[in-house]
Amino acid sequence: MYPQSAPQDEATTDLVHSLRRRGHPGERGRRTRGGLTAGSVDFAPYMAGRMALLIGVVLLLSFVLLMAVF
What we know:
By secondary structure, this protein is mainly alpha-helical. Helices cover 66% and strands 0% of the residues. The protein has helices spanning 10-22, 36-49, 51-69. The longest helix has 19 residues, at 51-69. The radius of gyration is 19 Å and the shape is elongated.
């Protein structure tokens, strides 16, 4: 089954989740639905949870670099 919408659309995310819920008899509970879009669906919450840490590290390193220069 291929999505009829763009990869960033909510309909595509819903399709990935519904395919994983429905599954296939040979899968035995494994998450075998993959691809770039499914990987992005999995990676987005991971990255969103760590965004504050990433911004903080970038700001801290920028501050240290500016202190070293001046």
